[in-house]
Each structure stands twice: as structure tokens, then as C-alpha cells.
Amino acid sequence: MENNNLKSNIGANNIIFSVSEFITLLNIGLNKSQVKMIGEVSEAKVNSSGHVYFVLKDKKDGSVMNCAIWKHRYAIYGIKLKEGMEIIVFGRPNIHKTYGFSFIAETVELAGEGALKKEYERLKKKLTEEGLFAEERKRLIPKYCRKVGLITSKQGAVLGDFLSNLGKYGFQIKMIDSRVEGQEAVTELLRSIKTFKNQDIDVLAIIRGGGSAESLEVFNNELLVREVASFPVPVIAGIGHDKDEPLVALAADASESTPTAIANLLNESWQEAFLRLERYERGILGYFEGIFEKYRSAESSLMISFGNFKNALLNVKIDLRNSVNKSFSGFKTLLFRVAEQLEYAEKNVNSHNPERQLALGYSITRFNGRIIRTVKNTRIGDNIDIQVFDGKINSEVKSLNKNI
Amino acid sequence: MAKEKLDTKNLNDSLKRLAEITEWFDNQEEIDIEEGLKKVKTAVELIKASKERLKTIENEFEEIKKGVEEEDGNEVAPKNIPY
Fold this sequence. Notes:
heterodimer, A: alpha/beta, CATH 2.40.50.140, Rossmann fold, 3 domains, five-stranded parallel sheet, 10 helices, rod-shaped, B: mainly alpha, 70% helix
């Protein structure tokens, strides 16, 4: 309300501001002057509440500016301000109603490659001694993980690269969009990590897109390194590096240079599992194939046995028929022989039938019932009976002529 | 001369007797006409009866044979076992 009044009165010469009102007015303007500023630290002191007050001096002409950085911001960057240190601060100017003008720094970083390098080496040495980078501390990326926490910037190709290379294994990605470059990113990264601490995830991936080597500085932040090292689940760093490996990458459980490589790392166990499954599947199918094969061969040998049995039956049948035929034909022969015998007997009997002789014209002559075979059997005057085919002739012997 | 009762039922016996008769004839040097005639009469009777018996047996046999062959003909063809 008050500010609106002030704004509407700017430029009005006849308006008289109170000191407080004017300071408020100035601060509205100053607030817009968010800048990065480089200078050399002179006079740095920490007050009783932990806030740090220092003076930044321009190396060229000795211009000076009072600066302050609040306790919680100061703690983030892990830099102990000392006289003569060249630093870059990011922040905005402000006029305090009691203490006057000062530049309120939100971030602070060392300036100059040499200083950065020195600080990097110091911190690396310190954390190495603490064992933060030790191989034995590193946790394996869990196999078959699905719930992936992802911290990266929505801008740039990182996210697309990462997602398009993840296999279709049912990954559940939770993402927090965070700046990943510049000292300003430290706060966001720390906040994102803190958020993920309370999330149900299997693994955390922190991925930075391409950028200048200088922008890697943020990943040498001590607090950030410690958060990564103590994160409850394994952390994969996808930060990349120029000459020196960023300390966050050293502290992470795994470090890959590209989003694609991280995706592949997460795919790995799934791919292996699928390969194994395929192998098992082939094994099982092969096993069943074998059973079927056995069954088929058993079946075919059964069919052969059936065939053999059938043949045996046929043989038995043929044998039976043969023996039936044999006995039939034997019997027939027997019958034939009987018929022959009968015929023979008939002929024989016929040929011996005395009546047949009579029919042919022969006759039988008897005297006193006895057959006359020779002339000696009778005398002239004897009454003899001559039997012919159809009766008897009584006759008297008139002469006897013996064959000479 | 009591007429011998002729048993013509048994073909085997008849054949035996016929054989005896033919043998008798074959071995007779002096034919006893009366005895010969008697034997011829017996033989004729035997032959007639035997022929009838033979015919009956033959018919029976053909019947049996036909039965066996029909049985063969009615046989069921083996089936293919599906698989």
C-alpha cells in the first residue's frame, strides 16, 4: 500500500519523503540491480549471529564496497573469506535502515583459475582423507531398479537423451527441474537432493548438460559433495568433466559422462535379465521339445510294434486259413478216395456179377443142382437145367463132344 | 439162409465190407455163383447206402467250408490309430 503510494509520487518535487520512505523507495530500485561483481576481500569478519561482513576492493583503482552474506548462504559455498582473496559475488545492493548501504551477496565463489584449482585440490585432499571418495564406500547400482530420481535442467537435450535411451522396463522417473550451472545452482541442487531424500526411489541421477568447464564449479561444492556421499540410495553422477573430475562425481556411486551412458547403466541389469529369460525360455522350450521328441519316437516305435503285431496277427490268420484249407483239401481228398473206392467196388462187383454174364449171353448149366463145368459131369440122356438171363431151359443131353 | 441184417450207417464199416467183397471176388478161382450173387446184392446195397452217406457228408462239409469262408469275409479291416 505504502509502496504504491510512493511509486505514484516519484518525480513529484513537492513531495517530502520520510527517511524510511526514501530508503524503501531506493531499495525498490536497487533490488533490480542483481549483478555479479569481482573484487578482493579486505576486512572480513563474522558477527555473533554468524553473518559475514566484508569489504570488496577493486584491484585497479581501489574502489571499495561494503558487503554482507548471511550465515545460511555463506555456509553453502564452503569458502572462508580472508583478506586478499579474490572472489566473485552474486547478489544485489541494499540500504539498511540503520546500518546503511551494503551489497548483499547470495553466492560467493573464488575467482581466477589458480585459486579455483587450489581450492579444488584442498577440498579434494580433505574429503579424500575423510574417505568420501573411497571405492569401498561406493554402492552398487541396484539391479532391476525402477524408481529413479532425476535431478537435471528441463532445458537442453539432456532429458530427451536420457529418456529416449531408457529401455521399456517399467521405469518410474521422478524429476526435479533444477539449475545445474553456476553458483546459483548450488541452492537448487541442495534443495532437490533434500526433497529426494524423503522420496521412495531406488537410485538418484544428477545429470548436467553440456556446458563450459567453468560451470562445473558448482559440482565441487563441499556441501553438495557431502549430500551426495551420504544420500540414502546410490547416486549416479552425469556431470562430465574437463581436466579435473568434479568432486560430486568422485563422491557419487557411479559416474558416467553422458545421459545415454546413465540410461544404459540403468538398463543393464534388465537387459541381462531379459537375455537370461530368453536363454531360460530357450532351455525350457528345448527341454519340452526333447520330451515331445521322445514321445514322438516312442509313439513311432509303438506304431511299428502295432504294425508288427498286425503282421503277426495276419500271419496267424494266414496260417489258420492254410491249415483250414489243408484240412479241407485233406478231407476232400479223403472223400474223393472214398468215392473212388466205392466206384472201384461197384465196378468190381459188377464185373463179377453172374447175372451180368447171363445178360451177355452166357448161361449156366446145372445137372441135379450142380454146375456142369466139363463134359465129364454129364451123360447122354441126362435132364439138365440151363439158366439164362431171364429164366431156365429144361433140356436133354443128346450127344457129348469133347474138345480135342 | 437167414438174411443178414445189413448195417449201412457207418461208411467206414461199409467200405471195409465192400473191400472184403471185392477181395473175395478177386481171390475166387471157382466162382460160387450163388454166393457171388448174394455178395453182389450186398455190395450193391452197400454201395448205394455209402454213396448217399458220402453225399450227405460232402454237403455237410461244403456247408462248414462256406461258414468258415463267410467268417473270413466278415472280418473288420484294421483301423489306423490317429496321432
